[in-house]
Specification:
This protein is an alpha+beta fold. The chain has five helices and four strands. Bound molecules: iron/sulfur cluster (SF4).
Length: 198
């Protein structure tokens, strides 16, 4: 019988270019277009992001992956202090569905969600035992979130990037990357996920 491969847990060893490429190959089938490793200190956490969730977003207090169910800014800062490296996941979506609540929009959200979680799983199996996903937009695995009743798929429940009070645009600026704002329904826009790595 062939010997089983045992993967050692990793401890601040960084991530190789070849593994990043393998993640991207898998991520492409979920709509991702790029993946970049970066240092955690580039992540901007800001109180005003939580404010935007609280005022002006219909998801507030209605989804397990959004505030107030997710950690506040102080807790987020403490969590990020336990990491040094993260991955930025970049995908592209069409703006025409953004303000709609239809099956096509939900399909896109679920695809993005499943893709991020599957990359987190792949990283865990590579020895990154602390890998943890923050997904772009809120969870749409259920047509209506069960909140405040128990989540139906707790193994796949993760906070959204925005719910973690992360200033995405500020973080992109720190990374010297840009993202244009979609102003027409025919435009495409970038969405971003993050995997906290080690
Ligand atoms: S899996 Fe369903 S119940 Fe759980 S957070 Fe997602 S939408 Fe809500």
């Amino acid at each position: 019988m062939p010997e089983k491969k045992v993967v050692p847990f990793r401890n601040n060893e960084g991530i190789s270019h070849s593994l990043t490429q393998r993640l991207l190959e898998k991520g492409k089938s979920y709509g991702l277009t790029a993946i970049f490793p970066f240092n955690i200190d580039k992540i901007e956490v800001a109180e005003w992001v939580r404010l935007k969730c609280h005022y002006g977003c219909s998801r507030f207090d209605s989804n397990w992956t959004c505030p107030p169910a997710t950690p506040g800014p102080d807790k987020v800062r403490a969590i990020l202090d336990e990491y040094e490296l993260a991955l930025l996941l970049v995908g592209t979506k069409n703006c025409s569905d953004f303000y709609l609540n239809n099956g096509r929009k939900r399909f896109g959200q679920v695809r993005c969600w499943k893709g991020t979680i599957s990359l987190e799983r792949m990283l865990f199996l590579e020895g990154y035992y602390k890998a943890f996903s923050l997904v772009g937009e809120c969870c749409a695995l259920c047509k209506e979130c069960a909140y405040p009743e128990d989540c139906r798929f707790p193994q796949e429940k993760r906070p959204s990037v925005e719910s973690f009070s992360i200033d995405v645009i500020g973080t992109l600026k720190n990374l010297a990357k840009t993202s244009k704002i979609a102003t027409q329904t025919g435009d495409t826009y970038n969405y971003f996920g993050i995997i906290l790595l080690e």
